[in-house]
Amino acid sequence: xxxxxxxxxxxxxxxxxxxxxxxxxxxxxxxxxxxxxxxxxxxxxxxxxxxxxxxxxxxxxxxxxxxxxxxxxxxxxxxxxxxxxxxxxxxxxxxxxxxxxxxxxxxxxxxxxxxxx
Length: 117
Ligand SMILES: [Zn+2]
Prior knowledge:
This protein is of the alpha+beta class and 117 residues long. The protein has one domain (2-115). It has helices spanning 93-106, 112-115, and strands at 2-4, 13-19, 22-30, 35-49, 56-71, 83-86, 90-92. A five-stranded mixed beta sheet has the order 2-3-4-5-6. It has a two-stranded antiparallel ribbon with strand order 1-7. The structure holds zinc ion.
């Protein structure tokens, strides 16, 4: 799902997108000319390989997410964590979800069996 930056109001607009069994939904609000705040929830399940035994299992997720989306390269001073830059006129929520997905895959996760020890 994509929304043109200029169509995102400061009062906020609902968004929803999904990849596989993961859903990402919430509200996107314009906070300055090029900057949009996206607050929402990532919910669903993710296939994951156990980092101890390699067993594949399904991991349930429900995470509150807050991300800033900037149209173009972010130039302001001050560090913003969780900033994603979009180099065209569209805020693409799939890109945000995809990048969160990548970070979940970097987590060290053990399956139920390995968690017992
Ligand atoms: Zn395991």
